[in-house]
Write a structure and sequence with these properties.
This protein is mostly helical. It has a single domain, classed as Orthogonal Bundle (DNA polymerase, domain 1), CATH 1.10.150.130. The protein contains four helices and no strands. It is globular, with a radius of gyration of 14 Å.
Length: about 90
């Protein structure tokens, strides 16, 4: 499903999935009845992930399992707790 992105020397592209994120959050609210706080947390988590991807300097916007592993390693380096990392991974799934 995901192909390996190409590395480029150009500045990172701004990764925008605002529409997809909002659709996902609306689905969570409608189908699963999640709280406003949960929606806010998921929005923050997804924004953080896509900011990480934008900084990774990949030419194409194709998310790989390797990029997700790098992101999770970055969260460890930033000192996030295991429960916070688990929630962020849940948001990505």
């Amino acid at each position: 499903m995901f192909s390996k992105p190409k590395r480029t020397g150009s500045p990172p592209k701004k990764v925008e999935f605002v529409g997809e994120i909002e659709t996902f959050l609306r689905m969570l609210r409608a189908e699963r009845g999640v709280s406003t706080n949960t929606l806010s947390a998921y929005r923050h988590d997804l924004d953080d992930f896509f900011s990480f991807i934008a900084k990774s300097r990949y030419g194409d916007v194709e998310i790989t399992s390797g990029q997700i592993r790098q992101y999770l390693s970055d969260l460890v380096e930033r000192g996030l707790s295991s429960s916070s990392r688990a929630r962020r991974l849940s948001a990505l799934k």
